[in-house]
Amino acid sequence: MDIFYALGRAALVILLVIALTRANGLRSFSKMSSYDFAITVAKGSVLASAVLATSPGQFWTAMAAMAALFVIQGAISRVRQRSSAAARGVDNAPMFLMRDGEILEDNLTRGQITRADLLGKLREANVHRLADVRAVVLESTGDVSVMQGPGPVEAEILGDVRQ
């Protein structure tokens, strides 16, 4: 009998997640910023709590927490769109790890990235020579972007990247 209750709880949670995702938009499970990533991880934890709840009170508390996470994420996103000060307060600034073929050792240290980590990302991006790298950016999400090829990168693309 417990299996049927678990299936029912899972179905209700999934229906709630679908409804909230439709209401909140495609950003609901994105990793566009560090707070998106943190909220997405929290949503997974709350979803598991709801499915594994042993009492109706725990289940409904988890459902309310799930809805709250969506509302909070939506509110933060809207505030960030309207206020650059809020965006700076919420988001980590992207940071150069390399610029024009030069590894920026101080920024590796600031970003807690090892040289081996950086070289691994360069290999993933199929970089053959450091001199071909225009920029490597540690993004606000923790992802690493590698830009390579001839010619400079347009200033607008790198405008928000911290030196």
Give short descriptive properties of this protein.
single chain, 163 residues, alpha+beta, 7 helices, 4 strands, 58% helix, elongated
Count of helices?
A: 7
Mind summarizing the main beta sheet? 4 strands, antiparallel
Describe the strand arrangement of the main beta sheet, using strand numbers. Answer: 2-1-3-4
How much helix is in the residues? Answer: 55-70%
Content-based structural category: alpha+beta
Question: How would you describe this structure to a colleague?
Answer:
The chain is of the alpha+beta class. The chain has seven helices and four strands. The protein has helices spanning 2-24, 34-51, 56-82, 84-90, 105-110, 115-124, 155-158; strands spanning 95-99, 102-103, 133-138, 144-148. A four-stranded antiparallel beta sheet has the order 2-1-3-4. α1 runs parallel beside α3 (56-82), α2 runs antiparallel to α3 and α3 (56-82) crosses α4. The N and C termini lie far apart (60 Å).
Short description:
The chain is an alpha+beta fold. The chain has helices at 2-24, 34-51, 56-82, 84-90, 105-110, 115-124, 155-158, and strands at residues 95-99, 102-103, 133-138, 144-148.
SSE layout and pairing:
Elements: H1 2-24, H2 34-51, H3 56-82, H4 84-90, E1 95-99, E2 102-103, H5 105-110, H6 115-124, E3 133-138, E4 144-148, H7 155-158
Antiparallel strand pairs: 1-2, 1-3, 3-4
